[in-house]
UniProtKB/TrEMBL annotation, chain A:
Record carries keyword NAD: no
Residue ranges, annotated region (Disordered): 726-755, 862-977
Keywords, ordered alphabetically: Golgi apparatus, Membrane, Protein transport, Repeat, Transport
Annotated organism of origin: Spinacia oleracea
Name under which the protein is recorded: AP-3 complex subunit delta
Automatic annotation (TrEMBL), chain B:
Keyword Magnesium: no
Family: Belongs to the adaptor complexes small subunit family.
Positions of the AP complex mu/sigma subunit domain: 2-142
Protein name: AP complex subunit sigma
Organism: Spinacia oleracea
Top-rank taxon: Eukaryota
UniProt keyword terms in alphabetical order: Membrane, Protein transport, Transport
Keyword Protein transport on entry: yes
Record's subcellular location: Endomembrane system
């Protein structure tokens, strides 16, 4: 029964073609029908694959593989069937099995344990293609176990006489080495031999393997440089040459003498080759590794210019990339192509634009940073949003690099930050935010300018509408509060911090605003008190106006808070006063206490105004703006608002009381003094930058118990979520306010709707700043009245603009003599300098194992000759030369010693002893473990190395004539010959 | 590892062939393919064929309705990869005779075999068209 059904299956089984046709029939229709078709097919396959008929089974597997690779079905359930199909003797079926295995097996596939023997069988097959299948599959799915078990089979294949098999075996070695580094001991020799093989396919494969290996740890492969050099000279295959060039690019960085040797051939290839890919690889090698060789760099820059001149965007892109590698050492090459670079800024391809931007940034130095950024910011205004942000981001990153290393003039940089914040589309708010605060803390001298920039940002109500800028505003608020002593007009600052549109800010930023308000308020009070003391002391009000008028009140250092500089502070207090006089202060309208003055017009007030007036107004302003916030549901906002209000109300009562008594009572005055001084002390401590590693330096207290399970928190959070979901609003809490606020004395102000308050506030504010004369009746959120901050100014660029750009940068990109800066660079506080707390990236253990094994393999190679070599190290140079060729495969420093031993005894002896130990270990190891096998191999190696020597002599003769001229210096051993 | 993956995708963004040389789960592959296809197919003829994505580069080339996308390491030679793509197309052309999307759909396994002959472990091992096709032709004869 079962048998007959399987026959039926095989008769009526759908082939892969049928399946694909079926899918194509379904695909135009809705996706539901195709998915049902696919799941039906899978069901069908599940049945078919259980068949005992090899044909049916393998066809089912083929279909399954197809569905897996195109539709991503998980077919790990079929893993055992895959193993079965692999074991079929028919090649066509086996092939399907191996294909499925390559596509679906991974490290965690359990049935892998079952395939080892099948692999071994296929690897030893007489059919080349069967061997190839197994090798191919091994290169994809080889695990460390599989690689270990098949290592010896691979070893035999490496010297196979069948070129097809050998080529594949060489290519698989890479996987085996990665998974099972010990394989190096077995296979490395033969792999090296293949570099000298007469079969180009084997050489090509071997070079591919070494190219991969050497990219990870180039040092271990330095001893093979002569082999690679020979291939560089002899090989005509561009694919192989590219790989060899890649390797030399890495090796030449480690061994400068190698550079001299290869620069000639590389230049020759660069000049003669028609293949662009090869020429480009030469350029890249020169640019990255041979940048000290003037002639080569010159040639490369010529070639780069050719690339840039082509219409092909690919070549242009690569040319720009090569240039940017060259920029650090050879700026002249970039300057030669300046026009192309700048034109590329407005290319149609965003990738090319980006490349040219990077190139520009790499040219930035402290001399030209101002000009280049100016040009770029202007350009950003005209570009599309994405590229605009890319420009801003790269400016920010470049300028802030290594504690603002290239920034000399911080005033300029801070104002640049302010400028960037206003660029439409700007999305780098976070970065600008942190830099503003960071500069404030690190660079003392930049603070006055910071406060100025912060003021400009805060007073611009349009910025509040852009959520991307809220971070910047928060930083501006913080800076203004923290360094308020530099402010020219604290009152204006206060007004900006409390302006009605701040309700657009998120609570966290609002909290910062409030905190800054507090700081500014305390500063103003302090000024007021000092000023009054001054007045009391001189008892002449008229003196006030004549006090230090021309001293720059805005530019005092924090120390000016001490009592000795009263005069200057009093002056800033005067500013405050005059600012209030200038303004049409709205709060008078609803302030009972000022009712008297309200009746007199403002024209009269000028003469009548007393010294305390501005402060009272300030307090009133604060109170009005803050009161609605004490009902905020955000705890940060609420708490700070209440703090401010508390202080305001105490101080106000005091001051007013004093005013009523005509400054006769000293006691009350004293109280205000005390409160203000208390808070001033609070804010006096300067905030500094915190080291990134600060937390790590604190030892964890022994008795501190960390809770692993934080599920308890969920309980708390669920409560929180409920309450915080509703945000505060201005209107709702009116009635409660009256009941709960004991400090508000039932004044008339409370009778007004807060909406009208903010409405009139808004109107006043706008009038003051002369910004927008729109109706003030509607809107308290103000969301529609102001044009969005990110007003799009995107214009289509045309050629003219590009040319302008080129002209603009004409000067900025020429190398200038270092300017004599008028003032010294301000000090930048750095904390983490020279401190590498973050652990350096560890090499992967696998890689370490691998390169260790390779080093061992290479040492073993040279082991035969080391003993004799060391004893003869001091002999005359003629004999030494013969020795050199003997040890040519040894690590470079060993050979170095043999020649330079006399000159650097102290240094080299230690290194040598290390190596001695190393080789000793190796020897012990080899004796201990597999004595005989090793012996035999080393004997073979001896033969091999003599063979090496022979062939190398030949190449030496070949090269000898051309290189004689360059071999003038006898001190340096000819590395390659 | 130089070549990380080879993808063939049609104009509509459907994957026609996907060969990975490093292990990725199916979900990772889906995500990767989606991102890459979105990035590359949006580009036009005047733009260059190289796209940086995550930590590697994608070199792509369009032939009629098919996009060939190859993900490579950052220091790989882009022009050589373009040549590799072209070689792959030429090889398929020789085998199928004026290759089209349908050929690859219906002979996916053959396309895979060709790739296997050309690339092992992410390294290009064979660049001779006759050598690449020899085993495939032998297999065709045998079956």
């Amino acid at each position: 029964m079962a048998n007959s059904s399987s026959i039926m299956d095989s008769f009526f089984q759908r082939s892969l073609d049928d399946l694909i046709k079926g899918i194509r029939l379904h695909s135009p229709e809705s996706s539901t029908s195709i998915s049902s078709f696919l799941s039906k097919s899978i069901e069908e396959i599940r049945r078919e694959i259980k068949s005992t008929d090899p044909q049916t089974k393998s066809t089912a597997l083929l279909k399954l593989t197809y569905l897996h690779s195109i539709y991503g079905f998980d077919i790990s359930w079929a893993a055992f069937h895959v193993v079965e199909v692999i074991s079929y003797p028919q090649f066509n079926l086996k092939r399907i099995g191996y294909l499925a295995a390559s596509a679906t097996f991974n490290e965690s596939t359990e049935v892998l344990l079952l395939v080892t023997n099948q692999f071994r069988k296929d690897l030893s097959s007489a059919n080349d293609f069967e061997v190839s299948l197994a090798l191919q599959c091994l290169s994809v799915i080889g695990t460390s176990d599989l690689c270990r078990d098949l290592c010896n089979d691979l070893f035999t294949l490496l010297s196979s006489t069948r070129p097809y098999v050998k080529k594949k075996a060489i290519a698989v070695v890479l996987r085996v080495f990665n998974k099972y580094p010990d394989a190096v001991r077995v296979c490395f020799k033969r792999l090296v031999d293949n570099l000298e093989s007469s079969d180009p396919q084997a050489v090509s494969a071997a070079v591919g393997v070494f190219c991969e290996l050497s990219l990870r740890d180039p040092k271990a492969y330095l001893p093979l440089a002569p082999e690679f050099y020979r291939i560089l000279i002899d090989c005509k295959n561009n694919w192989v040459l590219i790989k060899v060039l890649k390797m030399f690019g890495k090796l030449a960085l480690l061994e400068p003498r190698l550079g001299k040797k290869i620069v000639g051939p590389i230049c020759e290839i660069m000049e003669k080759s028609m293949a662009k890919s090869l020429v480009f690889e030469c350029i890249r090698t020169v640019v990255s590794s041979l940048s000290d060789h003037e002639s080569a760099v010159k040639l490369a820059s010529v070639k780069i210019r050719e690339l840039l001149a082509e219409d092909d965007p690919n070549l242009k892109y690569l040319g720009l990339q090569a240039l940017s590698d060259l920029a650090t050492k050879h700026l002249w090459a970039v300057l030669e192509n300046k026009d192309v670079v700048l034109k590329s800024l407005s290319d149609v391809d965003p990738n090319i634009k980006l490349a040219s931007l990077r190139l520009l940034m790499s040219m930035v130095s402290e001399d030209n940073v101002a000009e280049i950024t100016k040009v770029l910011v202007n350009f950003a205004l005209k570009s599309d949003p994405e590229f605009c942000n890319e420009i801003l981001r790269s400016i920010l990153v470049t300028c802030s690099g290594n504690y603002y290393e290239i920034v000399f003039d911080f005033d300029w940089y801070v104002s640049l930050l302010g400028e960037m914040a206003r660029v439409p589309h700007c999305q780098s708010g976070e970065e600008i935010e942190s830099q503003l605060v960071d500069i404030g803390m690190r660079v003392k001298d930049a603070r006055p300018e910071l406060v100025k920039v912060g003021r400009d940002l805060l007073t611009d109500p349009a910025l509040l509408g852009n959520p991307f800028l809220h971070g910047i505003l928060s930083a501006a608020a913080w800076v203004s509060g923290e360094y308020v002593e530099f402010s020219k007009n604290p009152f204006e600052l206060m007004e900006a911090l409390l302006q009605p549109r701040t309700n657009l800010l998120p609570p966290s930023v609002r909290a910062v605003y409030l905190q800054s308000t507090f700081k500014v308020l305390v500063f103003c009070l302090q000024c007021y008190i000092w000023q009054r003391e001054e007045v009391d002391a001189s008892s002449l009000a008229g003196d006030l106006t004549s006090l230090g008028i021309d001293s720059k009140c805005g530019l005092q250092s924090p120390e000016s808070r001490t009592l000795s500089t009263h005069g200057a502070i009093a002056n800033s207090e005067q500013n405050l006063e005059s600012a209030i006089r200038d303004s049409n202060w709205p709060f008078e309208d609803f302030d009972n206490q000022d009712a008297l003055q309200e009746n007199h017009t403002s024209a009269l007030s000028e003469t009548e105004i007393s010294t305390q007036d501005p402060v009272v107004k300030l307090l009133n302003l604060t109170e009005t703006a803050v009161v609605p916030l004490i009902w905020s549901h955000e705890v940060e906002v609420q708490e700070r608002a209440r703090n401010i209000l508390g202080v305001v109300q105490i101080v106000k009562q005091d001051i007013l009381g004093v005013g009523a008594m005509h400054e006769t009572s000293g006691k009350k005055d004293f109280e205000v003094c005390e409160i203000t001084n208390l808070f001033d002390d609070l804010f006096e401590e300067e905030l500094g930058p915190v080291s990134v590693n600060a937390q790590a330096r604190i030892p964890v207290p022994a008795d501190l118990i960390f809770k692993d399970n934080l599920t308890d928190l969920d309980l708390i959070y669920s409560d929180l979520q409920l309450s915080s979901s509703t945000s505060f609003s201005l209107g709702t809490s009116r009635s409660r306010e009256e009941d709960n606020d004991p400090l508000s004395n039932g004044q008339g102000r409370e009778d007004l709707e807060s909406s009208t308050i903010s409405g009139s506030l808004l109107a006043q504010h706008r009038k003051r700043h002369g910004l927008y004369y729109l109706t003030s009746e509607k809107d308290e959120t103000g969301s529609n009245d102001y044009p969005p901050a990110t007003e799009s100014k995107y214009l289509d660029k045309n050629g003219d603009e590009v040319n302008d750009l080129v002209k603009l940068t004409e000067q900025s990109l020429t190398i200038k003599k270092r300017q004599n800066h008028a003032k010294p660079r301000p000090m930048v506080v750095k904390l983490d300098e020279g401190e590498n707390f973050i652990p350096a990236k560890k090499l992967e253990i696998k890689d370490e194992l691998l390169s260790g094994a390779v080093r061992d393999a290479l040492l073993e190679n040279e082991e035969v000759s080391t003993s004799s070599k060391f004893s003869e190290a001091g002999k005359p140079s003629v004999e030494r030369k013969g020795k050199e060729t003997l040890v040519i495969d040894g690590p470079p420093d060993l050979r170095e010693h043999s020649v330079t031993a006399d000159s650097e005894v102290g240094n080299s002896s230690s290194r040598r002893s290390k190596h001695k130990n190393h080789s000793k270990e190796r020897r012990q190891h080899s004796h201990g473990e597999s004595g005989e096998g090793k012996e035999e191999r080393s004997r073979k190696e001896k033969k091999k190395s003599s063979h090496h020597r022979h062939s190398r002599h030949k190449t030496q003769e070949k090269q000898g004539s051309s290189n004689n001229a360059s071999n003038q210096t006898p001190q340096i051993p000819d590395y390659l010959l | 590892m130089t070549i990380r993956f080879v993808l063939m995708v049609n104009k509509q963004g459907q994957t026609r062939l996907a060969q990975y040389y490093e292990y990725l789960t199916i979900d990772q592959r889906r995500a990767l393919e989606g991102e890459i296809v979105r990035k590359c197919l949006a580009r036009n003829e005047q733009q260059c064929s190289f796209v940086e994505h995550r930590n590697y580069k994608i070199v792509y080339r369009r032939y009629a309705s098919l996009f060939f996308l190859v993900g490579v390491d950052n220091d790989e030679n882009e022009l050589a990869i373009l040549e590799f793509i072209h070689l792959l197309v030429e090889t398929m052309d020789r085998h199928f005779g004026n290759v089209c999307e349908l050929d690859i759909m219906f002979h996916l396994e053959k396309a895979h075999f060709m790739l296997e002959e050309m690339v092992m472990n992410g390294c290009i091992v064979e660049t001779n068209k006759s050598n690449i096709l020899a085993p495939i032709q032998l297999m065709d004869k045998a079956s």
